Here is the input.
Amino acid sequence: MDVWVIWLVAACILGVGEMHQGGFYLAPFAAGAALAAVASLTGVGALLSAIVFVAASAFVFTTLRPVAQRHRRLPPSIRTGAAALVGRPALVLERIANDEGVGCVKIDGGEVWTARSYDEHEVIDAGERVEVVEIRGATALVMH
Here is the structure.
C-alpha cells in the first residue's frame, strides 16, 4: 500500500474522531496527515512526509486551536423578540381567567400583552405579580 493512502486514511480517522470529540484536539493532526498525504503523493519519501505531518500539525495546533478555544467560550447569543420576554416579571392589569378568555399583563419594561395562566384552572387577580413562562403567538402564558 502506498504511503499517501496511509496518510489519507489517518486524516479521515482523525477527522471523524474530531467530529465526535469536538475539542479541536484531533483536527490539527487530521490537517497535518492530509498535508502529509499530499506531500507523499508528489513523490517525496516517507521521512519527508512525516516531517510535513509534524510541522503542519504543530503549526495548526499553535495557531488555530487558540482561536477555536476562544470561540467555544463565547457567551450564548442574546435572546431577542418574544423569546427575550420569557422569565421576565409582569404586573397583572386585568384579571386572568382562561375559561373566560380574559387577562392582560404589563411586562416589566412597558409592554402590555394579552395573558393567560400557564395553569389552566388558576385565576390571577389584577395587581398581582407574575412571571412570563412562555409566549404563544401574541399571548403571554404566566404563573405566580
The radius of gyration is 29 Å. The first strand starts at residue 89 and ends at 97. Residues 81-143 form a domain with the OB fold (Dihydrolipoamide Acetyltransferase, E2P) fold (CATH 2.40.50.140). The chain has three helices and five strands.
